[in-house]
């Protein structure tokens, strides 16, 4: 391997490790690595600044599509680094005006310091800004007398899926942050919960400390070649964007944001967020041939000629058609396989539009014993997530296909689920009906 590329590799591993560890020394190491050896780490703006006036930002916290990078295929591409902060609420019930102002100002601080994602000019090839959303769990909402139609507690999701309700995360709120630069995420976290006094050169005026505590940190990466670099597993194809070896997220399989936006009620303009932590049993997965994995991941009717090694030949379409879904039983009988994408597409709406928008996915970089996946999706109602997730279950189908050839569900193990209301930006600071 040429010296340059091995340096690049270790630099990326350092960046990933720094984000997983967190804290101010990790931030310094990460900044130095991401800026390169010739640039002195400093508090001068290293990334494009954001805006002072929140009116310049979209009303929705989840308005990300126009601010994500577009791939060569024209499809929105997820940011490479992901940070999920599970929060406990430490403030008053009901929240005081001072606490609300503190939260709002702390979040505005992030928006002043960093551009919202890649900016509106999505011709750029990098999200050198920050995208984030703050969601509230039923645990918090119950205490402030907010009932949200279409927001189920995680225990209900787990019970409905025959999983252990003890895997419900005990978060009161969750802050989900994405960027192509790990140091942007680390710096934002240090400004919100640490002692950092300037953020991208902008003075930090308020923090979340005292109102929220971070109880859980999860980190993840996604993108071409990332999983092979980050995980200690030689089976993962070198170029694959996800640990299971294939591309995900196409124009036809990611619905427009409007589909996931609530149109009525107290939080019209908001959405619901489901966040899961899933173990991925990669050794078993990679014991199978490429052909088998490809058909289990997408659909038995997909051929290597159309998919390629990692889905690279598929352009902006996942190749899943209404016919693939309608012929599921015949294809299962012919191939002895059912596809993951084929199954979940059976839960699309009457216009054959997916009901959930996968928002931020990441191959976990904080799992020390094995491999995991951070899954998150937004939708108007968590029952839609449930319908899609149920479509992955083997017993939903009357086909004679062994579990290990029935999509990917046999290679996954749920470890945690959580659900949140993500209010529109104007209502994001400690909503309350008390
Ligand atoms: C954890 C490992 C998972 C991996 C590696 C994975 C990977 C993929 C891939 C490669 C596709 C096909 C490409 C595409 O259309 O984006 C896909 C589609 C999809 N997956 Fe997954 N997936 C995982 C878990 C899940 C889970 C837990 C859900 C939740 C219910 C889910 C929901 C979906 C949906 C909704 C689609 C699009 C289906 C459509 O076209 O209508 N996936 N996934």
Structure description:
This protein is of the alpha+beta class and 434 residues long. 28% of the residues lie in helices and 17% in strands. The protein is built from 14 helices and 13 strands. The strands form three sheets. Strands 3, 4, 5, 8, 9, 10, 11, 12 and 13 form a nine-stranded antiparallel sheet that branches. The longest helix has 19 residues, at 3-21. It is globular, with a radius of gyration of 21 Å.
What's the gist of this structure?
It is built from 14 helices and 13 strands. By secondary structure, the protein is an alpha+beta fold. Residues 1-5 have low confidence and may be disordered.
Features:
434 residues; two-stranded antiparallel ribbon; nine-stranded antiparallel β-sheet; single chain; alpha+beta; 13 strands; binds protoporphyrin IX containing FE; disordered N terminus
Overall pLDDT confidence: 93
Output the helix-strand order: HHEEEHEHHEHEEEHEHHHHHHEEEHE
The percent of residues in helical segments reads 25-40%
Structural class: alpha+beta
Tell me about the largest β-sheet: 9 strands, antiparallel
Global morphology: globular
Give the N-to-C terminal Cα separation: 62 Å
Q: Which parts are unreliable, with pLDDT below 50 for 5 consecutive residues or more?
A: 1-5
How would the blueprint of this fold be written?
Elements: H1 3-21, H2 24-35, E1 69-70, E2 76-77, E3 81-89, H3 97-113, E4 131-136, H4 138-143, H5 154-160, E5 173-179, H6 182-193, E6 198-199, E7 202-203, E8 212-221, H7 226-230, E9 271-280, H8 282-286, H9 290-297, H10 304-307, H11 322-326, H12 328-335, H13 340-345, E10 357-358, E11 362-364, E12 372-379, H14 382-390, E13 412-422
Antiparallel strand pairs: 1-2, 3-5, 3-8, 4-5, 6-7, 8-11, 9-12, 9-13, 10-12, 11-12
Helix pairs in contact: 1-2, 1-6, 2-6
The structure holds protoporphyrin IX containing FE.
């Amino acid at each position: 391997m040429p010296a340059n590329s091995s340096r690049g590799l270790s630099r990326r591993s350092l960046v990933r490790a720094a984000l997983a560890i967190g804290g101010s020394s990790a931030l310094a190491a990460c900044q130095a690595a991401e800026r390169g050896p010739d640039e002195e780490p400093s508090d001068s703006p290293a990334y494009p600044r954001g805006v002072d006036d929140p009116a310049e930002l979209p009303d929705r916290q989840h308005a990300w599509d126009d601010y994500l990078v577009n791939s060569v295929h024209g499809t929105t591409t997820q940011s490479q680094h992901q940070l999920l902060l599970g929060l406990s609420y430490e403030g008053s019930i009901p929240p005081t005006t001072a606490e609300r102002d503190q939260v709002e100002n702390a979040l505005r601080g992030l928006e002043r310091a960093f551009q919202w994602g890649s900016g509106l000019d999505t011709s750029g090839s990098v999200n050198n800004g920050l995208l984030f959303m703050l969601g509230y769990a039923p645990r918090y909402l119950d205490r402030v007398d907010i009932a949200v139609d279409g927001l189920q507690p995680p225990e209900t999701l787990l019970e409905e899926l025959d999983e252990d309700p003890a895997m419900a995360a005990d978060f009161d709120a969750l802050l989900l942050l994405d960027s192509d630069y790990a140091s942007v995420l680390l710096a934002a976290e240090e400004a919100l919960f640490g002692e950092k006094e300037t953020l991208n050169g902008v003075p930090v005026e308020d923090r979340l400390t005292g109102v929220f505590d971070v109880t859980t940190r999860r980190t993840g990466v996604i993108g071409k070649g990332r999983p092979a670099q980050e995980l200690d597993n030689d089976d993962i194809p070198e170029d694959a964007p996800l640990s299971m070896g294939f591309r995900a997220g196409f124009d036809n399989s990611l619905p427009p944001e409007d589909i996931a936006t609530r149109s009525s009620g107290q939080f019209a303009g908001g959405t619901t967020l489901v966040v899961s932590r899933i173990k991925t049993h990669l050794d078993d997965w990679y014991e199978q041939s490429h052909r088998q994995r490809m058909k289990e991941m997408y659909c038995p009717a997909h051929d290597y000629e159309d998919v390629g090694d990692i889905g690279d030949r598929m352009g902006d379409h996942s190749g899943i058609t209404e016919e693939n879904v309608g012929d599921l039983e015949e294809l299962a009988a012919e191939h002895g396989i059912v596809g993951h994408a084929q199954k979940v597409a059976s839960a699309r709406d009457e216009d054959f539009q997916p009901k959930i928008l996968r928002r931020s996915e990441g191959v976990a970089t904080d799992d020390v014993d094995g491999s995991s996946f951070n899954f998150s999706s937004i939708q108007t109602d968590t029952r839609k997530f449930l319908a899609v997730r149920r479509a992955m279950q083997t017993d939903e189908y009357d086909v004679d296909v062994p579990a290990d050839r029935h999509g990917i569900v046999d290679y996954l193990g749920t470890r945690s689920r959580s659900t949140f209301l993500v209010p529109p930006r104007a209502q994001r600071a400690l909503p309350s009906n008390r």
